[in-house]
Amino acid sequence: MAIRGESNATPATDVGASSSSRMPWRVAEVTTVIEETPRVRTLVLRVPDWPGHMAGQHVDVRLTGEDGYQAQRSYSIASAPEASRVMLTIERLEDGEVSPYLAAEVRAGDRFELRGPIGRYFVWTAAVGGPLFLIAGGSGIVPLMAMLRHRAAIKSTVPAYFLYSSRTVEDIIYRGELDRLAALRDGLTIYHTFTRQQPEGWTGGARRIDRAMLADACPPRERPRIFICGPTSLVETAAALLLDLGHERGLIKTERFGPTGTMT
Amino acid sequence: MAAIMTVPPVSRGFRGRTRSGDASNRLPPGQHVTTDFPVLSAGPTPQPHLETWRLSLHHGDSMLAEWSWKEFEALPQSVVTVDIHCVTSWSKLGTTWQGVTIDALLEAAGLSDPPAPFVLIHCDGGYTTNLPAEDVLGGKAMVATRYDEEQLAPEHGGPARLLVPHLYFWKSAKWARRLQFIEDDEPGFWESLGYHMYGDPWREQRYSGD
User: Fold this and answer.
1) A66 and A157 share one domain
2) For residue A73, which residues of chain B lie inside 8 Å, CB to CB?
3) CATH of the domain at B148
4) Is residue B28 part of a domain?
5) Structural domain contains residue A11
6) DSSP one-letter string for A72-93
7) Closest-CA distance of chain B to residue A186, Å
8) Which one-letter DSSP state was computed for residue A124?
9) Does B94 reach chain A within 8 Å, measured CB to CB?
10) Is the ipTM beyond the 0.95 threshold?
11) Which of A118, A147, B60, B177 has the smallest C-beta neighbourhood within 10 Å, fewest atoms?
12) Which residues in chain B have their CB less than 8 angstroms from residue A239's CB?
């Protein structure tokens, strides 16, 4: 992580922001629900006075029950900064409190509160440059999709390599759009790997992300800007392998979710 | 602090979990209990070698004391059981840690008082976080090396991390290596990127301006 540089290079405006006004909660209204996979939905939101965001940022969502009970969670933004609506893509976690509601019950016209955008580290802008090496597992694709959508929207042609691990073909989130983006032939290459079940005749990846896959997708000599998002085990593994392959620590940014299992 | 009072919209059909009285008293606003231990880090997990590991105490640019792993392990140990609160809204109740309090570190360095009013924690990987000195004294903070009696795993900050449970958990910096006391507060890593300078979960100081 080029963290020290980031910290030392703190713009004065950032420090000033700490005395600025509080980021408000805004009321978001669901305009459309898109079923992405059996377990994943995208909520298209109308957010009045949305201040705009960078690809890779997230929001806090707050739900309020009829009895006033509130629950709050963080979700990555899926839409490009250029999109007219804010989109969140949510995976239903079996034991979740909020995700089963957002990923199953919510329908067009429903409203909840939203606060953001948040986070200025795990972001990609044209100024960050490329090549871009994106690595995701499951719903870890969401902030990376915002980056790919942004890249397409600004017609960037920086080479982008996207290695995406899904359980099965049916679990690929944004499948059709990924195919369309790859077909633009603007420098984006997508590698799929399937960990549970491979389609018939599949010759691509058929296992968890490993050293060979990472080495094949993008060599260290290209000095890519790397973003990894997924379950902790995937992120830990991929980040360690990338360092071992010779990628620079300062070019690797990670975002993790999910439990670690045990603490040992 | 212009408070805009709005009535939050009811999210149709949202009921949430059954709330247990005990847990809700212990939960700061906007938090929920997790029984997992999620990992959040900005980059690859460092793998420091204990043979070369050092923890040092600084006042500005001058080093006051330094400990090898062996020396650090020989310092007086404390065990605490505390609730921890992550800014991403999970809280974990009743977590047990062992380590060396900052009070004990200062004492081992021959100091009766902190040398400056603020402290910047520097970590492997370049991460930093800032705190008022008074928030790490009086038993309120330690450099922790064990969780639940086990050596702290690398992804959770091992071999040694700061533990400041009364503030949001990003202040409990993983892979701590250098405690630098400074005269003027300066933002650390997340504090430079839109997160709150102090981070009190009970006042819900998540982001700049909160």
Assistant:
1) no
2) 32, 89
3) 3.90.420.10
4) no
5) no
6) EEEEEB-S-TT-SSEEEEEE--
7) 28
8) B
9) no
10) no
11) B60
12) 43-45
